[in-house]
Amino acid sequence: MGARRWTLYAVAAALVILFMLLGGGARLYTDWLWFSSLGYSSVFLTVLLTDLGLRVAVGLAFFAFLFANMLLTRRVVLEQGHVTLREGNVIQMDTVPWQELLNKKILTIVFLVLSAGLAYLFTLSVAGDWVLLQKFLNPSSFGIADPIFGKDVGFYVFTLPFHIFLFNILFWTGIISILFVGLAYFISNPFRGLKAVFANSFARAHLSGLLAFVLLVKAWGYLLQQYLLLYSARGVVFGPGYTDINATLLALRVLLILAVVAAAAVIANVLMRRSQIMVYAVGGLIVTSLLLGSLFPAVLQKFVVEPNELNRELPYIEHNIKFTRLAYNLDRVEKERFPAGRTVGLDAIEANEGTVKNIRLWDWEPLKATYSQLQQMRTYYEFKDVDVDRYTIDGEYRQVMLAARELEQQDLPEQAKTWVNERLVYTHGYGVAMSPVNEVSSEGMPVFLLKDIPPATETDLRLEQPEIYFGEATDDYVIVRTNQLEFNYPEGDANVHTTYAADSGVELGSFLKQAVFALSLSDYKLLLSTDVRPDSLIQYYRNIWERVPKLAPFLRFDQDPYIVVNDGKLFWLWDAYTTTNMFPYAEPFQGRDNYIRNSVKVVVDAYTGEVDFYVAEPDDPIIRTFGKIFPDMFQDLDAMPEGLRAHVRYPVDLFKAQANLYTTYHMQNPHVFYNREDKWNLPTEIFGRDERPMEPYYTIIRLPGEDEPEFTLIMPFTPQGRKNMIGWMAARSDGDQYGNLLVFEMPKQSLVYGPMQVEARINQDQYISQQLTLWENRGSTVIRGNLLCIPIEDSLLYIEPIYLQAEQSRMPELRRVVLVHGDRVVFEPDLPRALAAMFGKPGDPAAPPAPPELEGELPVDAGLDRTVAELIEEAGREYARAQERLREGDWSGYGRAVEEVGRILEELARTTD
Question: What is the chain's alpha carbon radius of gyration, rounded to the nearest angstrom?
């Protein structure tokens, strides 16, 4: 019974292993079909063959080395099967129990299986390291030499990592071999312990040879460690410091020589048969490593460097500044003066109409909630994100916000969650919602440029293919071109259906091919469905977060892919980066990589799933290397369709890294840098009710000295320890100016309000504070939106939207706009009225400052001679304002407006007398 049970266990285990192997093979085949369907079969083969080739080479080398060394122990293991034991005056021979079972053949098989098993496990440690080999075989020059060793940066990025990889392979191969060879010798005669191992001359010679091999590999490791000093974090800056170069580097060179000497001493031990030599050699290396590698640098740092740190570290600080600025393209930043602190009038506002009309009032977080309430249409639709972009609409260059309406299968009604529905019917999302950044309806809602299902617009925008088969919510595979019609969109109480019109996907073909997919996807129902035809197309890896990185796992991707409407279709645009943590001297960003380039723009067709990679920075050596590795993968940016090229934007993740580092690395004088005399900070703001870091924001502005407004990404700076503004960075996105970075520095002797100072002024405004408190007391949630600093000529406008959200609703409404300029703060229902309150209206004289008790309301032209018609018109406006304040529950505003109507009527009576 027991034997039968063990037989069943063995058969079950064999079946599980077989299924795993078949499943792995099936996934490999379906991946090949997927890459081929997208036109990237060469990428698949390059990655697969390199990865397999590297693992096979490492596995075979490890196996050969270990197996050969284990075979060398075979004679000793077999000969020492009998040992002599002494009990009093009686000498007897004893036998290790397993020696009776061993012979040369069996021992060879044991060593073979052991070496093969360990070799397989060892290959798992190098899985995914194919990119190290390919970069080593296809290096590119940076044209920059490091000042310590004089080597091109390309050596550190492409060559050194592979050398370190080889060192680890050799070192651990030697260590593992020593362990198992020593274990074999010990087991062959366990009664005498370790003495038996060293008493046998052959065993001693064998282990000495292996130890000498490890020591020689370690000597090479000391050579490689010299180069790794360029990434030292011990000094005042990242990179080698005085102690690293004058102590640690010396120690590594001495240890390299001692490691070679120790290896020679170990070999000499074989000939001289003195174990003490080996002990002294290895022990001396360890002691010297502790003294020279740890104690000596610590003493030098304490007594030589720290008392005179700046002078000692000065050249190394210069290296760090230079290479950090190179690594993040900060050396290309153009600096200009910005004489802020000034105020502008209505003429400047009118001259910068393109900027003013594109001031963003809607923040993506409250707008996403509002979109969901107004445009989601059905529970199974979802807006994953809201993106910011710009379009030319009806001949006008406008900044907009838009979101893709994707289908979330998990939100289908429970009764609709059948295999047919999830795989064949509910296959795609539908359309987008789009609204201008600056417009708001009388109800506090966005004004839509594109809306509804099917898409509706009153502009020249076209969306003729709104289906979204590939996006951020498309997590599961679907099958199209089947006997089932696909759900397209709801229409009243019925549904409109469609059939997929493209040829994208993998054709299922024969029953055998379908069986492979069923095994790969672990879905047997695929084989049982009568709706699936041989010409049906299966679409998998549909989520762009999985789809694109699977094609290009060597790139790093921005956190915000964004949807684009172009030529009647939908596309995803996505920024990809080439990065490394091996750029010498350069400061790592957030403890991660210390070199980053936005080298690739990715385009994904939301309908077909086709993926294209465009090189945006051809001078980047890393993307040049990947271009050599995958010659058919990348295209020039000029090859991108013109309509899509117009929507390329500077990526936020890269900009945040550059802005963050620029707060320190704008200081190029090493003395100033060391003392952090001019350190800047990234500002904070109030969002909702909490203070949080300010995020970069896109806006359309006319930069100082430019003739036309353009799409830019902006981040203000504040001095360390203070809240005023000291400068701002802008990244340009339009046309030939794409990628250019500008920093506008403000005079240090003048006060320019920073974001938190503006937030404090808003908090201190009595009328605004009372109104926000009133809303809160009436049960509404007040959401303070992003504070934007908008440059207008030589001045700054600060704009902050105020949203209200009822307790019973998840739909924020934009109810007020706070505008701050100079010493004035206004608080109005929308931006046009806020601008009128601040600057006056076209044709009016310059607006006088509002009295304190009326600050935030539209100023009245008191003291001016006006006609009866003008007074009647003004009274009508104030009455309408009073009614609006009444509807909103703004009683104090209502009272002031009524008083103003009374004052105008009194003036009207005097005029008609």
Answer: 36
Amino acid at 396: E
C-alpha angle 734-735-740 in degrees, rounded to nearest 5: 65
Give pLDDT, residue 2: 57
Q: What is the mean pLDDT of each run of 10 residues along the chain (913 residues)?
A: 59 57 82 96 96 96 96 83 50 53 82 95 94 97 95 97 97 96 81 62 87 95 96 92 94 94 86 71 84 88 92 95 97 90 87 93 94 92 95 96 95 92 96 95 92 94 96 95 94 90 94 93 92 95 97 96 96 97 94 93 97 96 97 96 96 96 96 94 91 94 92 96 94 94 90 92 90 84 93 92 86 93 91 89 48 35 52 71 62 65 73 63
**Are 888 and 879 contacting, i.e. CB atoms less than 8 angstroms apart?**
no
SS3 content of the chain, % helix, strand, coil (to 5): 50, 20, 30
Q: How far apart are CA 513 and CA 43, in angstroms?
A: 23
- Cα of 96 vs its chain's centroid, Å: 60
Q: Tokens 């919602």 appear where?
A: 433
Tokens of 668: 């190029």
DSSP secondary structure, 45-90, as one string = HHHHHHHHHHHHHHHHHHHHHHHHHHHHTHHHHHHTTEEEEEETTE
Could you tell me which residues are beta bridge partners of residue 433?
Answer: 403
C-alpha distances out from residue 139 to 161, 168, 313, 329, 623, Å: 12, 21, 32, 21, 10
Parallel, antiparallel, or unpaired for β 741-745 and 334-337? parallel
Can you give the pLDDT at residue 566?
96
Do the Cβ atoms of 785 and 777 come closer than 8 Å? Answer: no
Model pLDDT, residue 290: 87
Q: Which two tokens stand for residue 240?
A: 């080698």
The two tokens of residue 491 are: 């229409």
Closest CA to 654 of 581, 744, 715, 577: 577
The three-state secondary structure class of 470 is coil
Cβ atoms within 10 Å, residue 308: 10
SS3 783: strand
DSSP class of residue 509 equals -
**Residue entry with tokens 């684009």:** 564
